[in-house]
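Hi team,

As requested, here is the filled-out complex form for the pyridoxal-5'-phosphate run. I kept the field names the same as last time so the parser does not choke. Let me know if anything looks off before we queue the next batch.

— J.
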Amino acid sequence: MSIKSELESLWQQLKPSGAQLVAVSKTHPAVAIEEAYAAGQRIFGESTAQELSAKHEQLPKDIEWHFIGHLQSNKVKYIAPFVQLIHAVDSEKLLQTIHKEGVKNGRQIDCLLQVHIALEENKYGFDEAELLELLNSGRLAEYPNARICGLMGIATNTTNEQHLHGEFAGLQQLFERFKASHFGDAPHFNQLSMGMSADYPLALQHGATLVRVGSLIFGNRSYAQA
Ligand SMILES: *Cc1c(COP(=O)(O)O)cnc(C)c1O
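And here is what came back:
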């Protein structure tokens, strides 16, 4: 299927829930993004600061760029002027840096806290206890230019649907709980980023508001070429 028809199918599937599609364009050339843009897609996700900056310069200015991968603190400055949402804040140090760069750029940068929900050890994110400690500490108030808008998770790479249901349901519960207990039901704490090409239909069943879909739209990634 073409990029356009894949997008149209995804938009249709997201419609009932109102969830938004982050088209994950990492490693794919600008022409592929232009094709998706021409079809009407406006939110794109990248996972390296260098690639994101280059594409931001090259492509239409009304694209909403999301950073979806593991972000090193020393790279925040490259994307801070324009990034719309940083999905995967996985340490307080990163949050602090995002705040500082937000101050420098005179803007509040929207972020999600990444929760480690997968079985794989090599995935990033806070666990529930660490998150609770950070939220209870009151230290978030020291970083007002990094605005926490919700949670993000990457599920285990498995075809076991029952297991995936468990991970997504757990993240949704955490999101609802923290929303009530620590964000006073603040209207901006409203994003739950979960679900990728292989598992987004399950994530939608558990209240995902942002799904991050790449290979289904753009085909397989070739890291050698990127
Ligand atoms: C690459 C990536 C995706 C997209 O993965 P696909 O399987 O191609 O849909 C989603 N989320 C994150 C964090 C990624 O790094």
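Two things worth flagging: The chain has a mean pLDDT of 96. Residues 24, 26, 47, 68-69, 154, 196-198, 212-216 surround pyridoxal-5'-phosphate (CB under 6 Å).

Thanks,
J.
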